[in-house]
Write a structure and sequence with these properties.
Elements: H1 2-44, H2 46-53, H3 60-76, H4 78-92, H5 94-113, H6 118-121, H7 124-152, H8 160-188, H9 191-198, H10 200-204, H11 206-218, H12 224-231, H13 239-244, H14 247-282, H15 287-301, H16 303-315, H17 317-343, H18 345-353, E1 356-359, H19 374-385, E2 389-392, E3 400-403, E4 406-409, H20 413-422, H21 436-454, H22 457-464, H23 470-486, H24 489-500, H25 508-524
Helix pairs in contact: 1-5, 1-7, 1-8, 1-11, 2-3, 3-7, 3-23, 3-24, 4-5, 4-7, 4-23, 5-7, 5-11, 7-8, 7-23, 8-15, 8-16, 8-22, 14-15, 14-17, 14-21, 14-23, 14-25, 15-21, 16-17, 16-21, 17-18, 17-21, 17-25
Length: about 525
């Protein structure tokens, strides 16, 4: 009878704990998803914003690279945000810190939607855009660490991977929401209206998201682990010094950075953002079609974040993450080649039947400046057309574009266009030829790889560091990795491809980083499943 009575008495408490856990996950995850939406809406519109905020004299490729670099600038500031807000979170608490971050993010996103363009404000337009992206980066630097720590410190040990995987899902959820909002806005406006003013609407939509986020997070309670530590007087008075001035802790920050975080972030950005850019820039798929296909793949793949988190609770964090890394390294290149075959079959046929060669010795590396000789102008035209090519050195000055046994002067744009058309290179992907199911399946595979490596990572980073410096430590490792390795993955992959002419060459960037992460994680990082957080 006593056992039965005790069991009955425990049921309400267990029900209350389950209800509190649902509220914690819902509140932290929803707010974080909205914050990722604010951050990623720029990336979803990078191709549209490039000619609006950067001078036309730069040329299309340089303007697009500048737009991607601006996306990366926001990520560069994330580690500094993690210092500021990580310190605040370890001093005053998790809840109030990520309330501040979401207000900063929301206001700066709304600000982007109100900015004047280059045609109106000149150099002030890109300067203000970069400033607002920096504010977003600072805010995001304090968001993820706080949300993941907050959920993990509420969770029971045996389900920490499962519960924190919901926070991992929020990045994809925010990206998916950004694609849906952009697609709906494009559908409701003409191309001219979207370029003129419609692009502002997805940014201004953050007014609503900000209000919802503040309402939800204001109702959350502080982390019980943090409250207990505070009550016992064990909080760190100088969390930055304790986190980074102590080699025993700093060692794990560095190992986490080059181990799980670097590999996770490059595979995630490659499988979602770069896949979208690849479809639109090189395969010339209509933007609305590309957004729809990627959004569908994200929707189908997102549940695997939770599956991967659950798997890590059963079999260990390292085993799941390393397995995902290995699959990613082996599969990324074939998947992107498959995208070319199924999304733009005419391009795939032309590449096989009539490879293009650019013969010249005048092409130099150009990042943010316009081309200034025949070779660079020919390369610009080929890159803009999404045509891969091989750059072959020549002894004489000038440039020649060759395909299908014919050659034309690289200084003659009309001749290049005619040569490409005769060689079978399409101006854009034929909507009737796109194999939509296979494109969705291939992007879904990329998404699932990202889910497998990313899903357990929140629990892994939380478990790796002690409570009194957890927010600061994990935030720094995560945001340097995502800000530097991941944030510039789009830029470097695009730069490599546009410079070499090989549309797949940029994929070697995430592959090499992931290989390094496999080695560091396998041989230098511990398995943390089952570790206690109250330490």
């Amino acid at each position: 009878m006593e056992t039965l009575a005790g069991s009955l008495n425990n049921r309400p408490a267990e029900g209350e704990r389950a209800g509190e856990m649902r509220k914690v996950i819902w509140g932290a995850s929803l707010g974080t998803a909205f914050e990722w939406y604010d951050f990623f809406i720029y990336g979803a519109l990078a191709a549209v914003l490039a000619p609006l905020f950067f001078p036309p004299s730069m040329g299309q490729t340089a303007a697009f690279l500048a737009s991607l670099a601006t996306f990366g600038v926001g990520l560069v500031l994330r580690p500094f945000g993690s210092l500021v807000f990580g310190r605040l979170g370890d001093l005053v608490g998790r809840k109030y810190t990520f309330l501040i971050t979401i207000v900063m993010m929301g206001i700066s996103t709304i600000g982007v939607g109100l900015l004047p363009t280059y045609a109106t404000a000149g150099a002030w337009a890109p300067a203000l855009l970069v400033l607002l992206r920096c504010i977003q980066g600072l805010a995001l630097g304090g968001e993820y660490g706080g949300a993941a720590t907050y959920v993990a410190e509420h969770a029971e040990d045996s389900k920490r991977g499962l519960y924190t995987s919901w926070i991992q899902l929020t990045a994809t959820a925010g990206f998916l929401l950004s694609l849906l909002v952009v697609t709906l806005t494009r559908s409701a406006t003409t191309p001219e209206q979207f370029t003129d003013w419609g692009w502002r609407l997805p940014f201004l939509f953050s007014v609503f998201l900000l209000g919802v986020s503040i309402y939800i997070r204001a109702k959350l309670n502080e982390s019980p682990v943090f409250l207990q530590m505070k009550a016992e007087g064990k909080t760190s008075r100088q969390p930055i010094r304790d986190a980074f001035g102590n080699w025993a802790n700093l060692k794990f920050v560095l190992l986490a950075l080059f181990g799980t975080v670097a590999g996770v972030t490059v595979l995630w950005y490659t499988g979602q953002f770069f896949a979208l850019i690849f479809l639109m820039k090189w395969l010339k798929v209509d933007p609305t079609t590309a957004y729809t296909l990627v959004a569908l793949a994200l929707l189908l793949g997102a549940p695997f974040f939770v599956v991967a988190g659950w798997m890590s609770d059963r079999w260990g964090r390292k085993r799941v993450i390393i397995g995902g890394f290995i699959v990613g390294v082996l599969a990324v290149m074939p998947i992107f080649k498959g995208l070319t075959h199924f999304a733009n079959p005419a391009l795939d046929r032309a590449i096989a039947a009539a490879p293009v060669t650019l013969v010249s010795s005048e092409c130099r590396l150009r990042m943010f400046s316009a081309p200034d000789n025949a070779c660079e102008r020919a390369r610009e035209q080929l890159n803009t057309a999404g045509v891969p090519y091989t750059l072959v050195p020549a002894s004489a000055p000038g440039a020649t574009v060759q395909a299908a046994g014919a050659g034309v002067d690289g200084a003659d744009p009309a001749a290049i266009t005619r040569l490409l058309r005769e060689a079978g290179y399409p101006a854009k992907a034929d909507e009737a030829e796109i194999n939509r199911p296979m494109v969705v399946v291939l992007i879904w595979l990329l998404v699932v790889i990202g889910c497998v490596v990313y899903g357990p990572n929140g629990a892994y980073l939380v478990e790796l560091f002690p409570t009194r410096v957890r927010y600061s430590s994990m935030s720094m490792a995560y945001h340097i990795g995502t800000g530097y390795f991941g944030g510039f993955a789009l830029y470097f992959a695009t730069l490599i491809s546009t410079t070499t002419g090989d549309i797949y060459a940029g994929l070697y960037y995430p592959i090499v980083v992931a290989v390094i992460s496999i080695l560091v994680t396998a041989f230098l990082l511990p398995e943390t499943r089952g570790w206690k957080l109250d330490r």
